[in-house]
Automatic annotation (TrEMBL):
Source organism (scientific name): Mustela putorius furo
Residue ranges annotated for the PDXDC1/PDXD2 second domain, each copy included: 371-477
Residue span, PDXDC1-like third domain: 483-588
Family statement drawn from the similarity comment of this UniProt entry: Belongs to the group II decarboxylase family.
Coiled-coil intervals: none
Chain intervals with Low complexity compositional bias: 665-679
Entry's Gene Ontology molecular function annotations: carboxy-lyase activity; pyridoxal phosphate binding
Cross-referenced InterPro entries: GrpII_AminoAcid_Decarb, PDXDC1-like_2nd, PDXDC1-like_3rd, PyrdxlP-dep_de-COase, PyrdxlP-dep_Trfase, PyrdxlP-dep_Trfase_major
Protein's recorded name: Pyridoxal-dependent decarboxylase domain-containing protein 1
Names of the cofactor(s): pyridoxal 5'-phosphate
Positions of region (Disordered): 1-36, 665-772
Length: 772
């Protein structure tokens, strides 16, 4: 009995174990594929990472797969691998090594950027350092903050002052990280009367500080810019430092111009940043180092408060963040660091000097020439020098006209920036929209030159490309108003005012069934515009045509691109109107023809049915019986005529086929009407593209050849404009059609030989030799 019980228990345990294994296999089916089984090998993992990095090469064959990093970049990437390896050391060795790395990197950065006796905090997010500094300032000014917390802040609210030119989202990030309400932020406006419009207004700032103190608030911290995020202008840091010392505020400085502190010559405004309480540096993009942390240098004597604020840490692993920068600085050396920053500043100076020689280009720079950021834009000529009349002279239309010109220039600058970026990709240009100046193009080599490898030749190419695009911009700008007037004066066309389109203009054809009050989709209009776009692109002109949604609407329209040469706007508008009208009439003719054919088929079926009934009545019932009908037809055959129906598409009528079977000739019908054409047909010289004005004075032809071709063109127009000699003599019989062709040939021969017929009243014109 005991033996049997043991075997039974063993069987139950085995069955329970198999059940658990099966359940485990079923539950493992929910795990993604790569984690199933015994894992992947190293080659498969590397291949997977490579595919994820490069993606599908067939989708974007022209884009670079990965950034080209130099040997210094490999050193920085090696630092991350070494950091993971060093973290496995024992605690004592790890503590000594991390302390050495942190102290060396801090000392080197303070010496290079002239910030003596400072401490360093390394962080991945650029704004994280400023958030830690704000927390340190709160702990320094509110002694009971650790104990009482928010109650201390509630009794005396802190105020953080930011410039209106600060990078977007900075204030919101600080409030989210510190847990402060948005009223704790105070945006200081920039100068409006004197100085740069991107510098903080110091007088207005002092007024704001006094007002906050009167309201019972505590001015806590001021964020100044040594190179604003948009145009690279530097605040008056020296004056701001005096103001902060007067009211006991913390001064923090950030910006791209802080990189120039490593050079031998530094401007006074940037040099004043060395006296601030803290600054944030971004050596990664400055030196072309990937995956290198940002650094916040600060001065503070209480290590306990810095530990509470999070600027220092007792964990050795946190200190390993400085390892990639520690290796990279040693690899570059002081000369390499200075050389890269100096090269970026020289590129900016080179671009400024080149753009100053280019007309219609305005450079937005501050008074000093040391700013490594160049911001420029294409500007419109003054109304007095513009040959195209503007509507700005009317007082009532002045604001709208000025706004329209502003949007027009913004669209052209946006197009210019995109073109320059495509032509010179190593320049690292960015297109931005400023509140006062509008759309501008920014060149910031300190942030891009070391990464993209920008050289002086690239800057020269950038200037040459900008100069080559100026004729297109000026020509397009001059033709926009003329195009609007021509479209407005042409029946059936509607000018669409889209300020964001950088071209000659936008036009829409209004067909007969177009509901102008509705903004819904118009299927008939879309078909007409799609066919019109196809016809315009087949002309092989220098203009580009696109179809897109209308501004603030859903109806289709034609977008006309930039003009690189003098375009005949009247011919362009007339071609669009005539072509659209032809497409509409052809489509309407096809629809009418379809309806007529359908009705004609129905009518033909009815008539044929009636004809069959009449035939039955004529022949009788007996002839329809199979055997009897054959006998009757043999004795007395029926002489039945073949009756059918033919449909005339031109006349839209149903006719009998009796005439066809009797005379063995099919009727000709009515001649179809001619398709409407333009009111004028312009003859072009050989090689002249559509929508081009006369080629007189062109560089492609010599003076004598261009003059002779123009004279030939005028004489040919006179010949084509003369009346035809097909009017017969009074009282004489009309010649038959068979004799008209020889007569026309005789008249043509007489014209070429210089003779004049008696019945031809046209003046004799000698045909040029080139046209013969």
């Amino acid at each position: 009995m005991g033996k049997n019980l043991k075997e039974a228990m063993k069987m139950l345990e085995d069955s329970q174990r198999r059940t658990e294994e099966e359940n485990g296999k079923k539950s493992s089916g929910d795990i993604p594929g790569p984690l199933q089984g015994s894992g992947q090998d190293m080659v498969s993992l590397l291949q997977l990472v490579q595919n994820l990095m490069h993606g599908d090469e067939d989708e974007e064959p022209q884009s670079a797969r990965i950034q080209n990093i130099g040997e210094q970049g490999h050193i920085a990437l090696l630092g991350h691998s070494l950091g993971a390896y060093i973290s496995t050391l024992d605690k004592e060795k790890l503590r000594k090594l991390t302390t050495r790395i942190l102290s060396d990197t801090t000392l080197w950065l303070c010496r290079i950027f002239r910030y003596e006796n400072g401490c360093a905090y390394f962080h991945e997010e650029e704004r994280e350092g400023l958030a830690k500094i704000c927390r340190l300032a709160i702990h320094s000014r509110y002694e009971d903050f650790v104990v009482d917390g928010f109650n201390v802040l509630y009794n005396k609210k802190p105020v953080i002052y930011l410039s209106a030119a600060a990078r977007p989202g900075l204030g919101q990030y600080l409030c989210n990280q510190l847990g402060l309400p948005f009223p704790c932020l105070c945006r200081v406006p920039c100068n409006t009367m004197f100085g740069s419009q991107h510098q903080m207004d110091v007088a207005f700032l002092e007024k704001l500080i006094k007002d906050d103190i009167e309201r019972g608030k505590l001015p806590l911290l001021l964020v100044a810019n040594a190179g604003t995020a948009a145009v690279g202008h530097t605040d008056k840091i020296g004056r701001l430092k005096e103001l902060c010392e007067q009211y006991g505020m913390w001064l923090h400085v950030e910006g791209v111009n802080l990189a120039t502190l490593a050079l031998g010559y530094v401007s006074s405004s940037v040099l004043a940043a060395t006296k601030c309480d803290s600054m944030t540096l971004t050596p990664g993009p400055w030196l072309g180092l990937p995956a290198v942390p940002a650094v916040t240098l600060y001065k503070h004597d209480d290590p306990a408060l810095t530990l509470v604020a999070g600027l220092t840490s007792n964990k050795p692993v946190d200190k390993l963040r400085a390892l990639p920068l520690w290796l990279s600085l040693q690899y570059l050396g002081l000369d390499g660091i200075v050389e890269r920053i100096k090269h970026a500043c020289q590129l900016s100076q080179r671009l400024q000097e080149g753009l100053k020689k280019v007309n219609h280009i305005k450079i937005l720079v501050e008074d000093e020439l040391s700013s490594p950021v160049v911001v420029f834009r294409f500007f419109q000529e003054l109304p007095g020098s513009d040959p195209v009349p503007r509507a700005v002279s009317m007082p009532s239309a002045a604001p709208s006209a000025v706004g329209r010109e502003r949007h027009c220039c913004d669209a052209l600058n946006r197009w210019l920036g995109e073109q320059l970026r495509q032509l010179v990709p190593t320049s690292g240009l960015t297109v931005m929209d400023l509140e006062v100046e509008g759309v501008c193009i920014r060149f910031s080599p300190l942030m891009t030159a070391a990464v993209l490898g920008t050289r002086g030749e690239d800057v020269d190419q950038l200037v040459a490309c900008a100069q080559s695009k100026l004729p297109v911009l000026t020509c397009t700008l001059q033709l926009r108003e003329e195009f609007k007037q021509e479209v407005t004066a042409t029946a059936g066309l509607l000018h669409v005012d889209d300020p964001n389109w950088p071209g000659i203009g936008v036009v829409r054809y209004e067909h007969a069934n177009d509901d102008k009050s509705s903004l819904k989709l118009d299927p008939e209009g879309e078909k007409i515009h799609a066919a019109l776009l196809k016809k315009l692109n087949e002309l092989e002109s220098d203009l580009t045509f696109k179809m897109g949604p209308e501004y603030k609407s859903m109806k289709s329209c034609i977008y006309i691109g930039m003009a690189s040469d003098d375009v005949d706007i009247s011919e362009l508008v007339e071609t669009i109107a005539v072509t659209a009208r032809e497409i509409e009439e052809n489509s309407r003719l096809l629809e009418n023809m379809t309806e007529v054919v359908r009705k004609g088929i129905q009518e033909a079926q009815v008539q044929l049915q009636k004809a069959n009934e009449e035939r039955l009545l004529e022949e009788g019932v007996l002839r329809q019986i199979p055997v009897v009908g054959s006998v009757l037809n043999w004795f007395s055959p029926v002489q039945a005529s073949q009756k059918g129906r033919t449909f005339n598409l031109t006349a839209g009528s149903l006719e009998s086929t009796e005439h066809t079977y009797v005379y063995k000739v099919q009727g000709t019908g009515v001649t179809p009407p001619q398709t409407p054409t333009g009111t004028r047909t312009k003859q072009r010289l050989p090689g002249q593209k559509p929508f081009r004005r006369s080629l007189r004075g062109s560089d492609a032809l010599s003076e004598t050849s261009s003059v002779s071709h123009s004279e030939d063109l005028e004489k040919a127009e006179q010949l084509s404009g003369a009346p035809e000699p097909d009017t017969p003599e009074p009282g004489g019989p009309e010649p038959p059609p068979s004799t008209r062709a020889p007569q026309d040939a005789e008249q043509t021969g007489a014209l070429q030989s210089g003779a004049q017929r008696p019945e031809d009243n046209r003046p004799q014109v000698e045909e040029p030799e080139s046209l013969r």
